Amino acid sequence: MSRKNRKGNYYLLSLGCSKNTVDSEGMAQIMSANGMHAEDDPSRAEVLIVNTCGFVDAAKEESILALRELVGLKRSNQMVIAAGCLSQRYGEQLVQHVPGLDGVIGTRRWMDIFDLVTRLRTRKHPEPLYHLPTDAPVVGLDERGVLRASIQGASAYLKIADGCRRPCAFCAIPKIKGTAVSRPIESIVAEAVKLQERGVKELLLIAQDTTDYGYDLGLKDGLAHLLDAITKAAPEIPWIRIMYAYPGYVTDRLMETMAKYPQVLPYLDIPLQHGHRETLKRMKRPANVEWVYETIGKLRATIPHLAIRTTFIVGYPGETEEEFDGLLKFVRDLEFDRVGAFKYSYEIGTPSATLPNQIDDDVKEERWNRLMELQQGISLAKNQKWIGKSLDILVEGYDIGVDDNDIPTGETVTVGRSFRDAPEIDGFVIVEGELPVGEIVPVRVTGATTYDLFATPPLRAPITIQPGKVYGEGDLIVPS
Fold first, then answer.
1. pTM for this one?
2. Regarding the domain delimited by 149-382, which CATH topology (the fold level of the hierarchy) does it fall under?
3. What is 3-131's CATH topology?
């Protein structure tokens, strides 16, 4: 393709988490608003952008490899721009690892992406250009009118805040994103209404810490206030899911609000990171383990059928066998529905990087395996309790079924998610036959594995969950 035809097209590769994806969608909207067209093939684009992740070593490596690949394929009439977390964290140093980069733009002013492209088009010399202000708020004040959401099928991630003011010793996010900045309620609600008009069935509220929403706006229980506003303004969005809650900030008001609105799914993602007080203190995390026991009990009493997801880090510096055993007891006691486990990753520039008693990789691996083996048994038992019951699923697509030996049967099955399953991180519900994609439909559970459920379409009509009522094996349970 000639330069004339290629100019005006852009290619954007988004790496990392859903929060990064929302920023990528924002950049794409800005590029399109300035007359540029998205391309899936980088060879057909003038501007090549990688929205990088800089959180852990594996993500950094993936980002650098992606940038090097594009730089290696770059033609004289193309430009490669590094955006996102890796850019913000390492700035001009990034060019040392990826020679040939044309531009570097960070997380604080991603909305200036087209301005950087314009500067690159008119530059007099081949040196890279940088756009890395450190004091600019990420959200709320200058979003250029773009929708701060990423729509994926019938689901949409809606960013309600960015940045973090927590002191976690292992985390570089505050250095990358800056302190927490909440978006105005009216902006979020207006976007929820737009997403409703587009037919979105599931709204996922995301931030580095959703339970800190509104603190900088002077709001108490800001997330509960936000849920009040969204449910009233967008009543036709059947599922609203809360992600990334912070221990200690799941308040009674938030619990009551979740229980009050059928739209708000009985699901809570609350990364606890560990279950032993001394480890948590070294992590600079909330270390009141008794609070967790009490709050989990209160949550389950307040919100019927609540599914709780959490994450843990094993092999944190100084983690003794006694502390790890404390984590295992914590997991056995509280029986979480979903658990993600990570081996501690050494991060230069974080307080944990200077801690003594770093744990050997083989010990991390052994502890990770023990934790996952324990949780797999808990998850399987939780899933098996759903056999014979029914629930709603959001249909995502189709696949080819397999038999008990994982041999393809050639028959088409439906793949969906229940209220217990967040996109990309939790399990699926596999249903016999074909159900309409993008719709929420009832199914009856017939089998369970550690991570997934198997089901058939039910023969009876659904009922609505009533708080405190005990349901029978044949009842069709729907959270919405």
1. 0.89
2. pyruvate-formate lyase- activating enzyme (3.80.30)
3. Rossmann fold (3.40.50)
